[in-house]
Amino acid sequence: DARVAERLGDGPHNAISPELWSKAAPLDEGDAPAGVMTAWAAPAVTVTDSIAPVALTNPRKGLYVADFGRRLTGVVRLNRIICKEGTRVILRHAEIMQHAGLPDVKTADPAMIYVGELRGARATDVYTCSGRAGGETWQPSLTYHGFRFVEINVTNSGVRPAAAMLTALHFHSGVALRTHAHFNSTTLNRMQHLAVSAQQSNLQTIPTDCDQRDERLGWMGDASLSSESMALNFEMAPFFSWWVRHVVLPEQRAGALPDVVPFVRYGGRPADVSWSAALPSVAHAVCDVYGDTETYREAASAIAALVDEVGVEARAGLGKMRTPYGDWCPPPARMGKGQGRKPSPPLTSAFSYALMVQQAAELARAAGNASEGARYASLGREIVSNFHTAFYVGNGTFDTSGTQTANVLGLALGGAPDVGLARRRLLSLLRARRTHYDTGIVGFKFLFDVLDQAQAHDAALAVLSQTDYPSIGYYFANSLEPATANLWELPDAPAEGTGMNSRNHHMWSSYSAYLVKSVAGLHQQAGTHGFQRLELRPSGAYALSGASVTVDLPHGTARLSWVRSGGRQHDKVSEGETARLSCGPSGGRISAVSFASFGTPSIGSPSDLPSDGRRSDGFETDPACHALRSSQAVAEACVGRNSCEVPATRVFFGERGSLFCTTRRDPLASPLRLWLTVACEVAADSLRVEAGVPVGSTARLLLPLRGMATPHLRESGRSVYLATDPSASSAARKANRLGSVQLTEDERTGRILAVELPSGLFDFDLSDAATPRAASSATEAAISV
């Protein structure tokens, strides 16, 4: 109420005047807050963006709707509005507009906002005008909202809304973005942006689950699964250290950790084991990414108590562990049918128990407590053995549920019986779902790393880069409510309606760590911490032509960029995006179109995805939804050129009619998309790599050879390794400050060249000396990631 605020005091925050403060009285001693006061150490919540509406509509008299163009977290400021004294301007915030897919809306009005998923949250700010002649400016305090759309009710106020009167203030805890990753794939770039944005908007002094409904709590399970990728993407050490101090407070623990910290509402105590696992997971992320063991030291006794408490529960058998949530929110086979199939409930709790003990062992060793580390390690081996005894049912299968999660978690722990058979079983489960996941958030966190360890790089990318249901890409590719800077809580959110259906949860964002470490390729060597010893590993996937990534470290910036030339090049984009193809600086021109389909292409029959998952073959068209000019249109745009762009639009492919693809099985679940494969003049692959190692770090560069018969490596134009005469380039290696260069086998990638690097900038060119290369023109030489 601006009239009251003006009487209380002036100033930007309506500070109470000294005269009024003089009337304040101290509380009686018994009324003072309980607890221990501590210095505030969390990064301050900071406004990082001010955004004007991209559209302002007037669907009803006195009612306007502002669209800010993307998903935000914060408040809306009113700018110099002219309104009558005592009248009200009411702002109601919404994530989405009404649409025909919402099951609780009988007659959808796409001009009106939808708030059914907000539950008890009003998401409403009310401003009562003072009537000030020069206009009134106001923004809410002590609240925030998650929104893209704002309904403005100006009935009887005299306000005539205009875009200039509204500014959305986007804010979150002031943690710096430390990692920047870019991929030669619009789809993967969109996915990384969604993950980073969903994480950022849920950093509000504590890691909240969501930012819009009547919850916004520090759910432990969400933080546990996102902690690694958050630590990679942002400077999270101060934030996580602050939160861990609250997790271990006696009043939070009270004998057992709760599902939510601070424990104010919702959840239970003791927590689901996969939720209480956040304590060691967050401490492990801080130690692993930043080399900080102080957070662990502060939490060591609480972690030990947690391990003991869960151990007591496990004594009755891992197959009997309490599991309230388990593998939360797996996608249902059909949209709108609630949660999908989960593994046997105790499996995720048993897995998380084993994992927390493994993390505790690593933390203790990193902190210099070798005996404690050895004790945890021994206990961890015992639990893993018991896990396999309890859940491995033979023939490469974990659990009787037939879920992907069961095999993923069994493999993720290590030591699985019949590892090769279990990996093939996982690939078989993926093929049965046409390379889509059916995991909940726990299995999803470990799915891509397990595939990466199995050298199934293209299978992992095939799952991650899907844009039909269920997939992360579906979040932005669907036509009803495309995500912009957010991740849904439910994979089928548009069809689920009210209740637990947030449009901005970070609990699925764990894949971001896989994109940074295994796809872009910047990680650190096993057993090291704080990125002192880097591991630079360009992806072994055939489906991606290049990527670049930088990570800001306390002692400098680590860099890696790589681009693949020649061979076959691929891209997959959703409708409305643009596919980009290039044969790279050494691959010559595009010579043929191997596959093209604008419609609803897919990975074909199970036999079309090789059991090792190493090739991106097997694309097939959908006869019910395929633009007949797909190959011709792409050939006209691309053949004879080194690179080309292809818009994924109906107009480009000559499908202007309204009947195109109307007979497809499920238009809501299967949005239109464009998949492409082209062949380059130079059939053999070559690889261009640029690496930057900051002073204070060293690196090991692992280059995938992918069938090269005679690998030849140059650095800054000098030959530094030739397979037919490995010792011949020793002088050049020394001159270029390189360490050893070895041809070897790698568990994750197969046959590689391993190069030891000191600090500095390096420019490598890897090719097959047995295969002639295309002469690079001046234009082609300028092509870079």
Please tell me about this protein's structure.
With 785 residues, this protein is an alpha+beta fold. Helix content is 27%, strand content 25%. The strands form nine sheets. Strands 1, 2, 3, 4, 7, 8, 9 and 10 form an eight-stranded antiparallel beta sheet that branches. Strands 11-18-19-27-33-29-30 form a seven-stranded antiparallel beta sheet. Strands 16-17-28-32-31 form a five-stranded mixed beta sheet. A hairpin with a 1-residue loop joins strand 12 and strand 13. Helix 14 packs antiparallel against helix 15 (457-464). The two termini are 54 Å apart.
Features:
8-stranded antiparallel β-sheet; 785 residues
Radius of gyration: 28 Å
Secondary structure: helix percent: 25-40%
pLDDT < 50 runs, ≥5 residues: 606-616, 775-785
Number of strands: 33
Average per-residue pLDDT, rounded, comes to: 93
Largest β sheet strand count, sense and barrel closure:
8 strands, antiparallel
Ends distance: 54 Å
Given helix and strand content, the structural type is alpha+beta
> What would the principal axes of the Cα set say about the shape?
globular
Strand content: 15-25%
Count of discrete alpha- or pi-helical segments spanning 4 or more residues: 20
Secondary structure elements and pairings:
Layout: H1 2-8, H2 18-21, E1 45-51, E2 55-60, E3 63-81, E4 88-94, E5 96-97, E6 113-114, E7 124-128, E8 136-138, E9 145-153, E10 166-173, E11 179-183, H3 186-201, E12 203-204, E13 206-207, H4 220-233, H5 237-247, H6 250-253, H7 273-276, H8 278-290, H9 294-314, H10 346-366, H11 370-391, E14 392-394, E15 397-398, H12 404-412, H13 419-432, H14 441-453, H15 457-464, H16 473-477, H17 511-520, E16 522-524, E17 533-536, E18 546-553, E19 556-565, E20 568-574, E21 578-582, E22 590-599, E23 602-603, E24 619-620, H18 630-638, E25 643-647, E26 673-680, E27 686-693, E28 698-704, E29 711-715, E30 718-722, H19 730-735, E31 741-746, E32 750-757, E33 760-768, H20 778-781
Helix pairs in contact: 4-8, 4-17, 5-8, 8-9, 8-10, 9-10, 10-11, 12-13, 12-14, 14-15
